[in-house]
Write a structure and sequence with these properties.
By secondary structure, the protein is an alpha/beta fold. The protein contains 18 helices and 27 strands. About 55% of the residues are buried. The structure holds 1,6-di-O-phosphono-alpha-D-glucopyranose. InterPro entries: A-D-PHexomutase_a/b/a-I, A-D-PHexomutase_a/b/a-I/II/III, A-D-PHexomutase_a/b/a-II, A-D-PHexomutase_a/b/a-III, A-D-PHexomutase_C_sf, A-D-PHexomutase_CS, Alpha-D-phosphohexomutase_SF, PGM.
């Protein structure tokens, strides 16, 4: 039986960079999740009788919201729901399942790399039929709807047993509980030369993959250990836990420090990697060398043709604006298109659908291709392994050769987390006010060439997205970018992105922060970060 339940709007359901993210107690307020899910459905047309994919990263409150979403999908007229066993679906696997089974769309429950638990973060995002995050047109409509919603529809049936694979019809809708790993693993086997990777591993190549007690555990176990033969224990922290074992499932040098330390140690494995809460981010570390996400994007794109799935070459490379320009040089050499988009995977969707870009990436540890419409952590790991197996060289050798051929983009991001929102907005406003006067200004050896607030003109649907980050570009190609994160859940996070291009191979051996010291100082001079935020140092440096 379907019920229509009266409700009152919440004013704070604006989707951010990647869906709605809030603390669990916020989501636990009466009808909070229901309002958002109904607002998603109310913003869509033509889904009657169609399929909806539902899954999440297993974090605290995942199962409860999945039950609500299934019952609401039934009451709203979907014909079928496909849900991952245990409520589990990594973000890239969900994207693949939406595409493979031609679903109408999908609801993914995740707050990505943010911590989980009763007082930590939760999130809901909607992906469209191409498997990618809903574009701004839809997220804007969802937000508008949340502000006026007065009722939601929900079917009245007992909770679905999510732990048994199988199909049942309930309230006129098919509910299919599926293996979350199988389809995804099969796709990876199509794209990569599993034989070559298996052979490399059998000859003693050692892998260490940290699943960070998050969703990629079951995927990595199946693919790396079972299908590729890496010894038991190569995948660690592989059980998805509702609180990620109390850690941030964020694969960066701060939260994956143990892995980093091991990879810098004496008897380090050949290849270290980690993924985040929902499996779309990646961290790549070779023996003795961390590969920045921006470099990883460039190197993967330059060598993608070594993997069977990309042997015909790639059509173009897209990167988010704050990501370093390293991949632009690869695109130039390959004679293919390069695209600069705002932060947020949703902006790559049109370029991938139109066949303009094949490989996309972001400085925030995301890389992916046209195989799905999300970034994909394990995909990046497997493409690296495929390249290593074919080239027979170490990660460090491959990186150094890449720099020698293309030049090195020294790159770092400084995050100031949990800053007072007004102070952060004030800082950005003040920067905007300075943009016109900055060009030509000299700071030590650095002269500002241009300064602007990045606006993106989508070449496919011609939409324009403004205010996507303050860029200060210096003569010679260095730059500093300032923007506020769209994924935080408390206060504001100021991100400062710092980049310097160094063509001379004799100067490729500097320590990153040292190489960027003058730019870091100029960022402080221009934005007055310390006094505006009250912080002496960044909370995280990546
Ligand atoms: C999300 C988006 C990414 C974005 C990242 C950081 O990643 O999908 O496109 O780069 O957030 O965004 P921000 O700088 O606004 O915090 P994820 O892995 O959190 O879904």
């Amino acid at each position: 039986m379907n019920k229509t339940v009266p409700t009152k709007p919440y004013p704070d359901q604006k989707p951010g960079t990647s869906g709605l993210r809030k603390k669990v107690p916020v989501f636990q307020q009466q009808d909070y999740a229901e309002n958002f899910i109904q607002s998603i459905f109310d913003s869509l047309e033509g889904f009657a009788g169609k399929t909806l994919v539902i899954g999440g990263d297993g974090r605290y409150y995942n199962r409860e919201v999945i039950q609500k979403a299934i019952k609401m999908a039934a009451a709203n007229g979907f014909g079928k729901v496909m849900v991952g066993k245990g409520g589990i679906l990594s973000t890239p696997a969900a994207s693949h399942i939406i595409r493979k089974y031609k679903a109408f769309g999908g609801i993914i429950l995740s707050a990505s790399h943010n911590p989980g638990g009763p007082t930590e973060d939760f999130g809901i995002k909607y992906n469209i039929g191409n498997g990618g995050p809903a574009p701004e047109k839809i997220t804007d409509a969802i937000f508008a709807r949340t502000k006026v919603i007065d009722s939601y529809k929900i079917a009245d049936f007992a909770d679905i047993n999510l732990d048994v694979i199988g199909k049942q019809t309930i309230a006129g809708m098919i509910v299919s509980v599926i293996d979350p790993v199988e389809d995804y693993a099969a796709l990876m086997e199509e794209l990569f030369d599993f034989g070559a990777i298996r052979n490399m591993i059998s000859l003693g190549f050692r892998i260490c993959f940290d699943a960070m007690s998050a969703v990629t555990g079951p995927y990595a176990k199946e693919i790396l250990e079972i299908r590729l033969g890496a010894p038991n224990g190569s995948v660690r922290n592989f059980m998805p836990l509702p609180d990620f074992g109390g850690h941030h499932p964020d694969p960066n040098l701060v939260h994956a420090k143990e892995l980093y330390d091991e990879m810098m140690g004496e008897d380090a494995p050949d290849f270290g990697a980690a993924s985040d809460g929902d499996g779309d981010r990646n961290l790549i570390i070779g023996k003795g060398i961390f590969v920045t996400p921006s470099d990883s994007l460039a190197i993967l794109a330059a060598n993608a043709n070594l993997a069977p799935g990309y042997s015909a070459g790639i059509a173009g490379i897209a990167r988010s604006m704050p990501t370093s320009g390293a991949s632009d040089r690869v695109a130039e050499k390959l004679g293919i298109g390069s695209y600069e988009t705002p932060t947020g995977w949703k902006f790559f969707g049109n370029l991938l659908d139109a066949g303009l870009a094949t490989i996309c990436g972001e400085e925030s540890a995301g890389t992916g291709s046209n195989h799905v419409r999300e970034k994909d952590g394990l995909w990046a790991v497997l493409l690296w392994l495929n390249i290593l197996a074919v080239r027979g060289e170490s990660v460090a050798d491959i990186v150094h050769q890449h720099w020698a051929a293309y030049g090195r983009n020294y790159y770092s991001r400084h995050d100031y987390e949990g800053v007072d929102t007004d102070a952060a907005n004030g800082l950005v406003e003040a920067l905007r006010g300075k943009l016109d006067s900055l060009p030509g200004t000299q700071f030590g050896n650095l002269t500002v060439a241009t300064a602007d607030d990045f606006a993106y003109h989508d070449p496919v649907d011609k939409s324009v997205s403004k205010n996507q980050g303050i860029r200060i570009l210096f003569e010679g190609g260095s730059r500093v970018v300032f923007r506020l994160s769209g994924t935080g859940t408390s206060g504001a996070t100021l991100r400062v992105y710092i980049e310097r291009y160094e063509p001379d191979p004799n100067r490729h051996g500097l320590e990153t922060q040292e190489a960027l010291a003058d730019l870091i100082a100029v960022a402080e001079t221009i934005a007055v970060i310390r006094s505006r935020t009250g912080r002496d140092t960044p909370s995280v440096i990546t």
